[in-house]
Design a protein that fits this description.
The chain is α/β, with parallel strands linked by helices and 438 residues long. The protein has two domains: 7-30 and 302-427, Lyase, Ornithine Decarboxylase, Chain A, domain 1, CATH 2.40.37; 37-298, TIM Barrel, CATH 3.20.20. It contains twelve helices and 21 strands. It has helices at residues 21-28, 37-55, 72-80, 90-98, 115-123, 134-146, 184-195, 215-234, 261-281, 295-298, 331-335, 424-427, and strands at residues 7-10, 13-16, 19-20, 32-36, 60-65, 84-87, 106-108, 128-131, 152-158, 180-181, 200-205, 241-243, 288-291, 302-313, 318-322, 341-343, 353-358, 367-374, 382-386, 407-411, 414-419. Strands 4, 14, 15, 16, 17, 18, 19, 20 and 21 form a nine-stranded mixed beta sheet that branches. Strands 5-6-7-8-9-11-12-13 form an eight-stranded parallel β-barrel, surrounded by five helices. It is globular and about 70 Å long. The structure holds ligand LLP. Ligand LLP binds at residues 65, 67-68, 86, 109, 169, 207, 210-211, 245-248, 292-296, 331, 391.
Length: 438
């Protein structure tokens, strides 16, 4: 647990944003996603100020990668902090627009955007469309011409940098579905974009992976990307926007480094400094520098509360079964991700138990974590799992027709819904009978 003023233990009780876990359960029930507004704001500010400080007089933008957690309240918070919003689907774009995000501050990614997603981006005149393939250049140019638009576009390049993180979230390997490999291929694509009548080519983007602590991977990608900017400049193509993607790691458990907003500021300041230095060594003007953190903005702001319903001590293993599981957090099932947890209503007691926390789905792999050190749990205790703000709600499902838990925002002792509880009716709203069944 990476504690802070808005996530602490007082008199044995877990307090998030000034509200105790016990009160939260009383008022909203479990399972419950809890989100700490102040922390999202603090981290957002740290990213902006750090990047600004490191890049000097150069223009910067921090884009929140909304795939980490996308709902209208969260996007309202991040955009009010001046963050741009990165979206990867029509659904995320729709949510950003509903949240009131300025279209010019929206960046759209995707390795296979559908026709309707591209048309939606064009219609709303969003800030940047990040083109991912040769076929997309053609399609987008055609749609833009039909709609009499000239979108500002970036090209996603693959800088071929291996980041030391889980294989499923490495994105810049030679064998990757994302982007176009940096060098001749990418330059060929850029020349097509520059010549395309209905595209305004602005620059390049890369994203090397997620949950990265190995900053040498960022250094390599900065070296590769700036070298490419120089090559393009020598060939008469100016890069006005350089987007270095996201990937900044957060503390989950064990040996993960513990970051604070100040440490994030320091990290991105260093990143901006190395970008600025490389550009100046090449004698290049500074393009607008964009980064796209998702997990770091919301990850540690999130805590999931569950109630203990069943305890089974098998001798070989002790299972604490909670009223959630892989439907609200599929990350252990997908990536064997580790989490830290406590019993929120007896947080001062010693961590005397070694347990596996399992969910209620009909599947053995339905786990939140194995071998977690925990206070001795009893039925009806509250289990708090930390760092669930990113890639939990956004990857949740209705598996076994369990409802996706509601989400509450906490701030200065207040708590309110930002995602209301899903009802059984909600879950079957789109069910219907085939004509011959009626
Ligand atoms: N930009 C692009 C183009 C991306 O693909 C991603 C993440 C980000 C930014 C934000 O990365 P972050 O700062 O959040 O690391 N479901 C996985 C994570 C997948 C990340 C996909 N792309 C997980 O639960 O760990």
């Amino acid at each position: 647990m990476n504690t802070r003023e808005t996530l602490k233990i007082e008199n044995g009780q877990l307090i998030i944003g000034g509200v105790s876990a016990v009160e939260l359960r009383e008022k909203f029930g479990t399972p419950l996603y809890v989100l700490d507004e102040s922390y999202i704001r603090e981290v957002s500010r740290a990213f902006v100020s750090g990047l600004k400080e490191g890049y000097g007089e150069g223009e910067i933008a921090v884009a929140y990668a909304s795939k980490a957690l996308c709902n209208t309240a969260v996007l309202k918070i991040t955009s009010s902090e001046g963050l741009y919003t990165d979206v990867v689907s029509g659904g995320e774009l729709f949510t950003a627009l509903k949240a009131g995000v300025e279209p010019s501050k929206i960046i759209m990614h995707g390795n296979n955007k559908t026709d309707s997603e591209l048309k939606m981006a064009l219609e709303n005149e969003i800030g940047y469309i990040v083109v991912d393939s040769f076929c997309e250049i053609e399609r987008l140019n055609k749609f833009a011409s039909e709609a009499s638009k000239k979108p500002t576009v970036l090209l996603r390049v693959n800088p071929l940098v291996t980041a030391h993180t889980h294989e499923a979230v490495q994105t810049a390997k030679a064998d990757s579905k994302f982007g176009i490999v940096i060098g001749d291929e990418a330059e060929k694509a850029i020349k097509i974009m520059v010549d395309a009548e209905n595209l305004e080519f602005m620059g390049i983007h890369c994203h090397i992976g997620s949950q990265i602590f190995d900053y040498s991977a960022y250094e390599s990608s900065v070296a590769t990307m700036t070298e490419f900017v120089k090559r393009l400049s020598d060939d008469g193509i100016e890069i006005k926007v350089l987007n270095m993607g996201g990937g900044f790691g957060v503390f989950y458990a064990g040996d993960d480094p513990m970051f604070t907003p100040r440490r994030y500021a320091h990290t991105v300041k260093n990143l901006a400094i190395i970008v600025a230095k490389a550009l100046s060594e090449y004698g290049l003007k500074k393009p607008m520098l964009i980064i796209e953190p998702g997990r770091a903005i919301v990850g540690e702001a999130g805590v999931t509360l569950y109630s203990v319903g069943t305890i089974k001590d098998l001798g070989v293993r002790k299972y604490i079964a909670v009223d959630g599981g892989m439907f609200d957090n599929p990350r252990f099932a997908l990536y064997q991700s580790e989490y830290s947890a406590i019993i929120a209503n007896k947080a001062n007691e010693p961590l005397s138990d070694n347990v596996s926390i399992c969910g209620k789905c009909c599947e053995s792999g339905d786990l939140i974590g194995v071998d977690i050190k925990l206070q001795k749990a009893e039925l009806d205790d509250i289990v708090a799992v930390f760092t669930t703000g990113a890639y939990n709600y956004s990857m949740a499902s209705n598996y076994n027709l369990n409802a996706v838990p509601p989400m509450v925002l906490v701030k200065d002792g207040k708590a309110d819904y930002i995602v209301k509880p899903q009802t059984f009716e909600d879950m079957i709203r789109n069910n219907c009978f085939a004509s011959w069944q009626k």
